[in-house]
Specification:
Blueprint: H1 3-27, E1 34-36, E2 43-45, H2 46-62, E3 67-70, E4 84-92, H3 94-99, E5 105-112, E6 115-123, E7 128-133, E8 138-140, E9 143-144, E10 158-161, H4 174-183, E11 186-188, H5 193-202, E12 207-213, H6 215-226, E13 231-233, E14 246-251, H7 253-262
Parallel strand pairs: 3-4, 10-11, 10-12
Antiparallel strand pairs: 1-2, 4-5, 5-6, 6-7, 7-8, 8-9, 12-14, 13-14
Helix pairs in contact: 1-2, 5-6
Bound molecules: D-MYO-inositol-1-phosphate and calcium ion (2 copies).
One calcium ion binds at residues 48, 71, 89, 91-92, 94.
Length: 268
């Protein structure tokens, strides 16, 4: 993508993300409807939907040739990443949004013919804006993020992993996760995949391992992480699928292979 086109898209997308964040902050202390989706713990609110509608309307008005791939279904029916596709999670971390009123983010990745050009993750309550443009570095509130530590070792790493994957489950052998939890310095779970990617890019987490995410959870984070020299793959090292559900290992390159080789045994 032409650098100037990317720049103007980036400025527009960032402005919309900040505006959407402001709207969320204004509405979140008034009553709002909460529904469930695939299970009683899979929450969605009317604010998630309204934020996605806000992006859908803005994108269609200003960039009618672009497509929107969004979680709540107000975008297009995406089968390929041909052309320019906005991959949007209007609120990533809805459970945190509902229960904690913090630790949630707006995530926007912009892909052109399958290439991640722009990544924006906005921690709405912390007012922290993580941004990246392909080949131009990653930033947090306009301050450039440093390349990830080239000396990182697993025993001195903090890994984001949800306790669920250490229980018996149908995707990954839990014994390997137990050994991994013992091996690393510490584990964390923030409940927002987008923020977990942002923290890996910032170097305050060294890796994020999880077995089931969707493209809107990771699209922005993948771009951000690549700009600081990090890597995102599936949990077996294969490239992530940006059109469907995927396992994810996003981390510092120094510990990536070791986690896959010595600790992750997928069941399917
Ligand atoms: C969820 C969050 C959560 C992750 C889930 C996602 P949502 O997104 O990112 O951290 O573990 O798999 O679905 O539903 O809050 O947008
Ligand atoms: Ca999400
Ligand atoms: Ca969401």
């Amino acid at each position: 993508m032409d650098k100037q086109i990317r720049q103007s898209l980036f400025e527009q997308a960032s402005a919309w993300v900040k505006e959407a964040g402001g709207r969320i902050r204004e509405r979140m202390n008034q009553p709002f409807a909460i529904d469930t989706k695939s299970s009683p713990n899979d929450l969605v609110t009317e604010i998630d939907k309204d934020v996605e509608k806000f992006f859908a309307k803005n994108i269609r008005d200003k960039y009618p040739e672009h497509q929107l791939f969004g979680e709540e279904g107000f975008g297009d029916d995406i089968k390929t990443l041909d052309g320019t596709v906005w991959i949007v999670d209007p609120i990533d971390g809805t459970m945190n949004f509902v229960h904690q009123k913090r630790n949630f983010a707006i995530s926007v990745g912009i892909y052109n013919n399958g290439i991640g050009e722009i990544g924006i993750i906005y921690d709405v309550m912390g007012d922290q804006l993580y941004t990246a443009k392909k080949g131009e570095g990653a930033y947090k509130n306009n301050e450039q993020l440093h390349p990830l530590n080239k000396e990182q070792t697993l025993d001195k790493s903090i890994l984001a992993v949800n306790a669920f994957w250490a229980l018996k489950n149908r995707r990954v052998a839990e014994e390997g996760i137990h050994r991994l939890v013992e091996k690393v310095r510490g584990t964390r779970s923030f409940g927002s995949a987008a923020l977990e990617f942002a923290y890996v890019a910032e170097g305050i987490l060294d890796g994020y391992l999880t077995m089931s995410l969707m493209p809107w959870d990771i699209a922005a984070g993948v771009v951000l992480l690549e700009e600081v020299g990090g890597i995102t793959t599936q949990a077996d090292g294969q490239p992530v699928n940006m059109l469907d559900k995927t396992t994810v290992l996003a981390c510092n390159k120094q510990i990536h292979q070791e986690i896959i080789r010595d600790y992750v045994e997928l069941k399917v």
